[in-house]
């Protein structure tokens, strides 16, 4: 699947309507016992076919982690996070994966976050050669994939420069159109991300990078996460513990052996080239589970989520900035 998926799908914030393809997981031999007393407990999980969205699923399959924890997964691949939350609500999934642009959905009560997956640092505000500051974007045409992390980084950069979204000529377009429009000079700037910026640089090698995620970290962070269906999280705590155990073990393998995880994920996804996944991995931060647990306990993770919620309020996705404690059980992850 194209690297566009990971974030352009977050434009599902603007509409949820694509269909999801199914991909069955390999058949593991059971070595644990499900809560029902059977050798394996079935669980339905969604993922996105890029590095951040699929790497934990790839490691779990490669290392046999599902069977170790008495689970038999049915994995389903989706093009975006909002579709997975929709599937959670319909009972078609037990757990799913969402990127930062879709985190307003659990914040609005449609799912519960069970684990932080990664922190994204791939977003940029880029501009045509000769434009050297965000302030210089006033009155300029800026391509924005609405509701995505690209939209968020543009708003943050403008705010830092004392401007608002109304001070630019915002041109709403999907991520693939941004690549084409910027490359042909139809827009002056854009909110977009790597590895797509690498593609744009082939046409415009001397483009300017005016702003990036790291400029706002840690006050505003861009976490991706695994979420669970509300009824599953509240009604099946033992299943949640097992899934968390798998995610934590896979996460620690990824944090320790990133290069090996790229190779495993390449095999898992089949059609994604390793260099594309490697570029994506280089623009994300993968924290060990012990560190994520500590940051859950001390309120750091809630701070990340609160920062996003402020942006979602500005985007009109949330009426108020929701308290993350209502949809992320930090103590459960830290246990």
Description:
With 335 residues, this protein is α/β, with parallel strands linked by helices. It has helices spanning 5-8, 51-62, 65-68, 81-90, 104-107, 149-160, 175-183, 196-203, 230-235, 237-256, 258-269, 274-282, 289-297, 300-315, 330-334, and strands at 41-48, 71-78, 95-98, 112-120, 123-127, 141-144, 169-172, 189-193, 208-212, 223-228, 284-285. A five-stranded mixed β-sheet has the order 7-6-8-5-9, with helices on both faces. α6 (149-160) links the parallel β6 (141-144) and β7. It starts with a helix and ends with a helix.
Average pLDDT level: 88
Which stretches of 5+ consecutive residues score pLDDT under 50? Answer: 1-38
Neighbour order of strands in the largest sheet: 7-6-8-5-9
Largest sheet: 5 strands, mixed
Give the helix/strand class.
alpha/beta
Instruction: Give the helix level as a range of percent.
Output: 40-55%
Give the percentage of residues in beta strands.
Answer: 15-25%
Task: Work out the number of β strands.
Answer: 11
Describe the oligomeric state of these chains in a short phrase: single chain
Shape descriptor? globular
The DSSP helix count reads 15
What are the SSEs and their pairings?
Elements: H1 5-8, E1 41-48, H2 51-62, H3 65-68, E2 71-78, H4 81-90, E3 95-98, H5 104-107, E4 112-120, E5 123-127, E6 141-144, H6 149-160, E7 169-172, H7 175-183, E8 189-193, H8 196-203, E9 208-212, E10 223-228, H9 230-235, H10 237-256, H11 258-269, H12 274-282, E11 284-285, H13 289-297, H14 300-315, H15 330-334
Parallel strand pairs: 1-2, 6-7, 6-8
Antiparallel strand pairs: 3-10, 4-10, 4-11, 5-8, 5-9
Helix pairs in contact: 2-10, 2-11, 7-8, 10-11, 11-12
